[in-house]
Structures are given as C-alpha cells and as structure tokens.
C-alpha cells in the first residue's frame, strides 16, 4: 500500500464519519420536531378581571398526545384546573394545584375534545385546549 492510497483511504474514512455524524444530527432534529409539545403562558396581570387573555394562547388547538406546559409569568399564584365555575365541573379532569410565579404545570392530552379550564383563585380566568 503506498502513501497515496493510505491518504485516499484516510479521506474516505473521514467522509464516512462526517456523513454518519450528519445523519445523527438530522435524526435528532427530526425527533425533536415530531415530539408533540405546546406551551401556554399565564400572562402578567392575570389576577385582574379586566385581562382579556389570562392564558395565552387560548383556545389552543393541538393533536392528541401533545404535552402542554403552562408557565406562570405573573407575579401572583394561579392554577390550571379543568372545567369552568359556571358549569360546576371544576377539577373533575385535572388540577395543577397552586402554581407559584415562574413555575410550570405539564399535562398530556390523549383524548380528543374541547377542554375548558380555569383558575380556582380567579374564577374569571378561563382557557381552552382543543384536541383534534
Ligand atoms: Cu389565577
């Protein structure tokens, strides 16, 4: 084997390693984007009844199996609790319990339907998740 052949084989090996790394990278990116996740903010000033969208975005449409993360970006404590006070079904499906400022609540929605939710501390705070 002469020096030229060794150089060519070396270059080929390097190319294969590079391609493999690229494939791993592409696969990792695909995995990240196909994992269903969505986010909702509990916005600043949510404890005021005049706020138009305490949970943003709302309604939020997602695919079944999506995990939704709520982040409390307000300076007050809030909850993400299934149901609406006026319907009398509060807390029948899920309840985050108290979410302190800066904290999060995560729930995976497996079933299709429209899911209303509200805050037990501020009954005027309403949100909705639509699962298709
Ligand atoms: Cu609240």
Secondary structure layout:
Layout: H1 3-34, E1 37-42, E2 55-56, E3 60-62, E4 66-72, E5 81-82, E6 104-109, E7 113-118, E8 126-131
Parallel strand pairs: 1-4, 3-8
Antiparallel strand pairs: 1-2, 4-6, 5-7, 7-8
Bound molecules: copper (II) ion.
The site of copper (II) ion has 7 residues, from loops.
In words, what does this structure look like?
By secondary structure, the protein is of the alpha/beta class. 24% of the residues lie in helices and 29% in strands. It folds into two domains: 35 residues; 96 residues, Cupredoxins -  blue copper proteins (Immunoglobulin-like). Strands 2-1-4-6 form a four-stranded mixed beta sheet, with no helix packed on it. Strand 7 and strand 8 form a beta hairpin. The radius of gyration is 24 Å and the shape is globular. The termini are far apart. It binds copper (II) ion. Copper (II) ion binds next to loops.
In short:
Helices cover 24% and strands 29% of the residues. Strand 7 and strand 8 form a beta hairpin. It is built from one helix and eight strands; from the N terminus they run αββββββββ.
């Amino acid at each position: 084997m002469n020096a030229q052949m060794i150089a060519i084989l070396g270059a080929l090996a390097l190319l294969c390693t590079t391609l493999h790394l690229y494939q791993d990278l592409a696969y990792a990116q695909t995995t990240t984007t196909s994992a269903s996740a969505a986010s909702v903010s509990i916005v600043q000033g949510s404890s005021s009844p005049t706020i138009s969208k305490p949970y943003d975005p709302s309604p939020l449409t997602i695919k079944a199996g999506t995990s939704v993360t709520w982040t409390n970006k307000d300076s007050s404590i809030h909850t993400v609790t299934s149901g609406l006070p006026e319907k009398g079904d509060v807390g029948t499906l899920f309840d985050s319990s108290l979410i302190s400022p800066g904290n999060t609540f995560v729930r995976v929605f497996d079933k299709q339907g429209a899911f209303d939710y509200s805050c037990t501390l501020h009954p005027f705070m309403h949100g909705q998740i639509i699962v298709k």
